[in-house]
Each structure stands twice: as C-alpha cells, then as structure tokens.
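Quick one, tokens below:
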C-alpha cells in the first residue's frame, strides 16, 4: 500500500493527514514513547485544585477533598494518584499517647513518577501511592433520599481513569481510604489518558499538589494544622452531636465520619464517631490499623463471612491478619454496600466476603 503524509491546500483550507501508514501502536524505551500509525494527540491531564486556606472545608481529618479543572479535551479520561508523604505527625504530639508509626508507607520523592523512599513496607509494590477509585454519589442522611448528597471515592491499588473534571464540576470529590490519616501530608497528581498501561514511567502528569489533613476529630475552627494549638475540643464534640441529630448547619459526613479503619460511605455517623471525637479531645492515639500493602495479600472470594472482624481474623486464612474486614459489594460494579438500596439499578448487595484491613483483595 502506498502511504500519503502531508497537507493539501485549497480555497483557504488546509487538510493534514496520514493514510496507509503501517507499524501502528506504541513503542517505548529509555523514558521515551513513540505512537505509530495514524496521527494522535497527547492531551495534558486536568489540574488538581485544593483550597489551602486555613479555614477551607477541603481540610478534613480522614479524607482529601479537591477538584480537577482545566482539561482541554474532556473526552479523554485521567487517573488520580495519591502519594503518602508524611503520615500521622500531630503537632503538638499527643502527650503520653504516641501515634502509630506508619513511616514505612511514606514516600519522599518530590515529583512523580516513582518514589525515592523510604517506602519499605512489607509487600508494598505500589510506590507508597494509591489511585482514586470509582466515584459515586452518597447521601448525607440515609433517611432523606431527596436530601443533600456528595461525591466520594475510595482509594485502590490500580489506576482508574474517569472524566474527573465533570465529576467535580459541582463540588469537590471526597477521597477516603485507610491511607488517609490524621495530621498527614499527601501529594496528588492527575495522569493523562496517554499514561494507560505505563503509569510507572509516564511523564504526562499534572503538577503535584500538596495536601494536608487536620488533627483527628477537628471539625471546627481554629484548625490544626496549620495552627499548632491542641485540637479538637468541646466545640468539636458539640458539632459531632449536631451531625448525629442532623441539625441544619452541622458539618458534613465527609468531615464527621471518623471510624472504622475504612470509612463506610453508605453509613450515617453514629455513636462510635462521637466516642472517637471524645477520645480525640482526651488526647488518645489514633486507634485504627492504617494502611496495608498494595497489592492486597487477600484473594477475593477466599472465604465468606457473616459478621465483623472476628470472622475474618484467625489462623489458616492466608493474608488475613489483625483488622481483616467482612465486606459486602454490589454484583457487577463491585461498589461497597450495606443493602440493595446502595447498588446501581438491577444490581444486588451480595454475600459478604473477607478482605484485608483496607477493605481490598486481589482479583
């Protein structure tokens, strides 16, 4: 086949094209990537936007909240990478109640891709970074189906590509996971559609945005950080009680959910969240297990369960250690659920299965 490559000009128009070109596909090596075949474009990903203002509602205890803006071609999807930089480092410290040491999951690299360390957690191959998973809409109150809602997603081990500009057009996405801890620092970047399959070496990424979480249970100003005063206090407890009673003007669920290790976005806050903030006021240490390695050591469908952690933690269950979870998911989509009402149309909330302490498992 003869090939044509060039431009045709006539009557003020210019047409460029490639016809009959062979060797279509991607070639990569030495940090470079060559796309063969018909012309293609490499669209830059959107920009991560986080409000760093001291009083911003983007500052929460157990979630990251941000928007994605500025992408020129919304038909191309991005993935969002969250790197753990400094985990659970409250200032001032909880005197007499030292925080857990999650430093093995910290990555000191200043920019993606890659991690320079330490990032030496056992079994960790994800570079101490996680990816924002499938977004969904969740209710502020389960008994108010026509009431307020918010967009949220859970962290996972593999990249998930979506139109994050559209997803965050009306409000920030709330990202949760066992890796989102109190008094911590994260680096967040968007990966363009050209990075699919080669995220480890791809350079088509947005500028890194540094984000911080508040001190545990701190839902009312003055916030820590950036302040260094001891928080939370009795005012924060009052706000948790107001949210429990769904008092108008109370802080949202994205701020007031504190437990368990992986926040259950389908559930309302309950008395255990109030107990958690009271313990935080007393200066007690963060009580949950924190991150676990990617990929998960637990195989999906390994064993069914009917209760809480106790049914999944024990000898003879490979990969299941302290904090293993009994989790239900929707048939088809795999979204976490409590009952059928939390699943997409025609899907059901299936049999609960054991997962690791981060609510994950291998396929």
């Amino acid at each position: 086949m003869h090939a044509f490559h060039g431009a045709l000009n006539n009557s003020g128009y210019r047409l460029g094209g490639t016809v009959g070109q062979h060797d279509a596909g991607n070639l990569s090596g030495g940090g470079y990537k060559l796309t063969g075949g018909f012309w293609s474009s490499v669209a830059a990903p959107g920009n991560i936007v986080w409000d760093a203002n001291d009083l911003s509602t983007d500052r929460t205890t157990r979630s990251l909240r941000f928007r994605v803006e500025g992408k020129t071609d919304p038909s191309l999807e991005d993935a969002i990478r969250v790197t753990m930089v400094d985990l659970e480092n409250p200032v001032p410290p909880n005197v007499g109640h030292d925080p857990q040491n999650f430093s093995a999951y910290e990555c000191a690299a200043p920019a993606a891709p890659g991690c320079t360390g330490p990032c030496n957690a056992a079994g960790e191959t994800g570079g101490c970074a996680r990816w924002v998973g499938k977004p969904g809409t969740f209710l502020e109150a389960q008994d108010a189906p026509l009431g307020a809602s918010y967009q949220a997603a859970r962290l996972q081990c593999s990249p998930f590509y979506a139109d994050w500009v559209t997803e965050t057009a009306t409000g920030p996405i709330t990202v949760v996971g066992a890796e989102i801890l109190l008094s911590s620092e994260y680096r967040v970047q968007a990966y363009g559609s050209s990075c699919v399959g080669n995220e480890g070496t791809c350079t088509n990424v947005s500028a890194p945005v540094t984000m911080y979480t508040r001190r545990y249970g701190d839902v009312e100003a003055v916030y820590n950080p950036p302040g260094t005063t001891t928080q939370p206090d009795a005012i924060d407890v009052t706000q948790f009680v107001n949210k429990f009673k769904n008092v108008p003007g109370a802080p949202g669920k994205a701020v007031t959910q504190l437990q368990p290790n992986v926040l259950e976005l389908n559930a309302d806050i309950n008395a255990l969240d109030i107990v958690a903030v009271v313990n935080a006021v007393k200066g007690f240490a963060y009580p949950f297990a924190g991150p676990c390695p990617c990929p998960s050591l637990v195989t999906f469908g390994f064993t069914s369960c009917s209760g809480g952690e106790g049914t999944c933690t024990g000898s003879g269950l490979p990969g299941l250690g302290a904090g293993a979870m009994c989790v239900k998911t929707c048939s088809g989509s795999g979204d976490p659920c409590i009952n059928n009402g939390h699943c997409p149309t025609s899907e059901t909330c299936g049999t609960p299965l054991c997962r690791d302490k981060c609510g994950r498992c291998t396929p």
